[in-house]
Amino acid sequence: MVHASPGLVRTNPHKNKGDTGMRKNAPIEPVQAVTRYIAQSKLRPGERLPAERELASLLGLSRGNLRQALAELEANGEVQRHVGRGTYLSRPTRRSSPLEPLKIASLTNPVELMAARLIIEPQTAALAAVYGSAQDFSRIMAALQQMEGEKILSRTQAQAESFHRAIAAASHNRLLQALTDILFDIRTAMHGRPAAPFNMAEDIQRMYAEHAAIAQAIVKRSAPEAERRMRLHLESLQRQTESFAA
Fold first, then answer.
1. Alpha helix locations (H) across 19-152?
2. How far apart are CA 171 and CA 179, in angstroms?
3. 205 phi and psi, to 5 degrees?
4. DSSP 196
5. Least C-beta-crowded within 10 Å: which of 21, 49, 200, 204?
6. Please, are residues 87 and 70 in contact by the beta-carbon 8 Å criterion?
7. Do β-strands 86-89 and 79-82 pair in parallel, antiparallel, or remain unpaired?
8. 49 and 142 both lie in a single domain
9. What is the pLDDT of residues 99-133, one digit of tens each?
């Protein structure tokens, strides 16, 4: 049986009540700005958004950037645009999900995202060590090998995401796998909001070493060590994230 770590109680994404965890003057991407406006407004599905000129002024966006954001939201099924009539909030459908990453990303921040990952991923790694198959372990090691020798940080981060998703799959817990997918989809949806600043060569080397330690523990089927290594890795990222947001 995998036991929860006492370290869970230390997780606190906010230093003070009401602290968003982000820089007060941090720029907000157009899609996020519109999505946040929709989420915080009293608009109901089927109702019209303000005219482009008014909405652009409200959000501090150029009309060009606003149109691009609306086009992306329309492609995602969030809004419907009609020439000469305006933009309307889409009505929910059976295929709509309450856990749409784009919506959640507009209401949260990287600090909160890291707090959620610290709750979920260490135990997921422990379960992977217990229930993972040889094929699961091969996928984890393949994802790790993709990171080895990489010199471009953006690629390393993408490969790290594949690594974490492979661990979730190895847990053989479909709910944890779905939650892990959602967390990384939310991170992807946080346009222009890096979790933390990175020193290229130094951080690429550190990221690889931390992931290698996690993989080794999982393959050895040491659930406590897998949990500990994942926690150490995420706590390191959390410190960077909180430092960047301070």
1. 30-40, 52-59, 63-75, 101-107, 110-131, 134-147
2. 12
3. -65, -45
4. S
5. 200
6. yes
7. antiparallel
8. no
9. 577 778 778 889 999 999 999 999 999 999 999 99
